[in-house]
Amino acid sequence: MSLIQVLPLAIVMIAGPQILSPIFLATSEKWRANSAAYVLGALLSISLVVVVAYFLGSSLGGGGSLLGASAKQLLYVVVLVLLLYAAVNTYRTRNVSEPPAWMGKLTAATPRFSFRLGFLLLGFFPTDIVTSMSVGTYLAANGDSVADAAGFVLLTLFILALPSLGVLALGERAESALPEIRDWMSDNSWIISEAVIALFVVLTLQNLLG
């Protein structure tokens, strides 16, 4: 997948509590272990969903498929439906600007809790599971290797690691800036998500109609 496709999808993946959580964890007592555990959990869950969606898409569109030549077009339709669902869900929840109550407990989180949080948020949060499934089915529809999803996964993980990397590099300056970044993301993440979902809808429509 090209950068123009990977970057927007990675931003959709982290918009919302997904990026707010590592910001809180970066200021927790065990911030190194918590941040690493969160990213590890995200790695496992994102990879799992992408691989499952890819192989389901590949089996649907394989040479022996009952769908024949229309299988590829059907997979693009599936991707399009998933993206439209993500857009509707993002718009519907746009006014939920306050972080969930459990986020206030992240400053006292443990690595085990952080791992579970990363696994569940990045793997099974509605917008994220739809986005990861879109990546897997998109690659299957194009006949690409599942390994081509590595850029999408790694970029998402890098963005999730930025709060802890910032604390590691900048120390107290990063800790003072993180709350401001958190508030901005909370207020504007839905607009960013809608914009990048729309971009990928356009790319999918081009492949479907081309």
User: Can you count the beta strands?
Assistant: 0
Secondary-structure element order, as H and E?
HHHHHHHH
- What would you call the structural class? mainly alpha
Cα(first) to Cα(last) distance is 18 Å
Proportion of helical residues: over 70%
Strand content: under 5%
List the helices and strands and how they pair.
Elements: H1 3-14, H2 17-25, H3 31-61, H4 71-92, H5 111-124, H6 126-142, H7 150-170, H8 172-209
Helix pairs in contact: 1-6, 1-7, 1-8, 2-7, 2-8, 3-5, 3-6, 3-7, 4-6, 4-8, 5-6, 7-8
Question: How would you describe what is shown here?
Answer:
The chain is an all-alpha fold and 210 residues long. The chain has helices spanning 3-14, 17-25, 31-61, 71-92, 111-124, 126-142, 150-170, 172-209. The chain has one domain (3-209). 78% of the residues lie in helices and 0% in strands. α1 (3-14) packs antiparallel against α6 (126-142) and α7 (150-170) runs antiparallel to α8.
Compact overview of the structure:
Helix content is 78%, strand content 0%.
Give the key terms.
210 residues, single chain, mainly alpha, elongated
